[in-house]
Specification:
Layout (H helix, E strand, L loop, with lengths): L1 H16 L22 E6 L4 E5 L5 E2 L4 H13 L20 H5 L10 H11 L5 H16 L5 E2 L1 H10 L1 H12 L7 H12 L1 E3 L1 H7 L1 H4 L14 H14 L5 H7 L4 E3 L4 E6 L3 E6 L10 H14 L7
Antiparallel strand pairs: 1-2, 1-8, 3-5, 4-5, 6-7, 7-8
């Protein structure tokens, strides 16, 4: 795919020149320190090619992109019983909204909004101390990317805990409805730490490749999840992966994706490639502004929409 290498380079060049970069997240103080001029993009194809452009080897806080991995782990632990505690529908509300929880009796709309991911963290805590659950998540991501250098940024985790009042409210509210089995502060400890994992675009694209290949790591042949589960995780990414901007991302880009307020996006082109893009400035929905534009351009250049004939 020589045209893919050129397309990545062209997109990276164009994004580097743009001035409308969005605004970095400041409600987590550590994220507000990131240079908004950064831009990286990576693609890992199912035939084993790793192609990068821009700042693709600089680590950034993956934030909510980690929720794809925690969902994968939790489904492995409890299977479809997970869906009794978390829904599968887009929220239509901001990612940290408490409004729907009241109407829906403490059952979060989906596993990618904050409340849903806190329930997933609670599921991963079963039989573990928080430190053990956090270690399991980190080791799983290291395994997926085949890279033991991936770490948790302790300063970001501490920054999230110090300012995470809304998340404490969500957790306590769900606990009052009986939808957390552990103390809220324990589930939140797991949640804050997995959101603070730092990865580069290259590492992130490598970690996501199993989802582009029917649940199997194309480099090793290891079946991470069944093909059906990979499709269902991809469906959740398409419908819920960009908070209340998920419909617009599906409309413009047309592939499953998961964003994070650190400015990263993981994109999956089923049967073809795993993509990762990073640009710290966010749009009004909390998704990477230039990252979304870059994936839209790349998908159009490569005819990668899942709705393309």
């Amino acid at each position: 795919m020589p045209e893919l290498e050129q397309a990545l380079a062209d997109v990276a060049t164009e994004m580097a020149e743009r001035t409308d970069r969005g605004d970095v997240a400041t409600y987590i103080p550590q994220l507000g320190k990131v240079d908004p001029k950064k831009f990286g993009i990576a693609a890992v194809t199912n035939d084993g090619r790793v192609l990068v452009a821009g700042d693709a080897d600089q680590a950034f806080s993956i934030q909510s992109i980690s929720k794809v991995s925690t969902l994968t782990l939790a489904l492995g632990n409890v299977g479809d019983a997970l869906w009794k505690r978390v829904g599968r529908e887009p929220s239509g509300n901001p990612f940290n909204s408490i409004v729907q929880l009241e109407h829906e009796n403490g059952i979060p709309r989906n596993p990618f909004i904050n409340a849903g991911a806190i329930v997933v963290s609670d599921i991963l805590l079963a039989g573990h101390q928080p430190r053990e659950a956090i270690g399991e998540i980190l080791r799983f991501i290291q395994f997926l990317a085949d890279d033991e250098t991936i770490i948790i940024d302790r300063e970001v985790a501490a920054s999230e805990r110090a300012t995470g009042y809304r998340n404490f409210a969500l957790a306590n509210y769900m606990k009052s409805f009986g939808n957390l089995n552990h103390a809220p502060e324990l589930a939140l400890g797991v949640y804050f730490h997995h959101c603070a994992i730092a990865m580069s675009c290259r590492q992130l694209a490598l970690a996501g490749r199993f989802l582009a290949n029917g649940g199997k790591n194309p480099a090793t042949g290891y079946q991470v999840v069944s093909a059906e589960r990979a499709r269902r995780i991809g469906a959740m990414m398409l419908t819920c992966g960009h908070y209340d901007g998920s419909g617009d991302f599906a409309f413009r880009v047309g592939i499953p994706g998961k964003s994070g307020v650190g400015g990263g996006i993981l994109g999956i082109v089923p049967g073809v490639a795993s993509l990762a893009v990073w640009s710290p400035g966010l749009n009004a929905n909390g998704n990477s502004k230039l990252g979304s534009i870059a994936l839209e351009k790349l998908a159009r250049m490569m005819n990668w929409s899942i709705f393309a004939p």
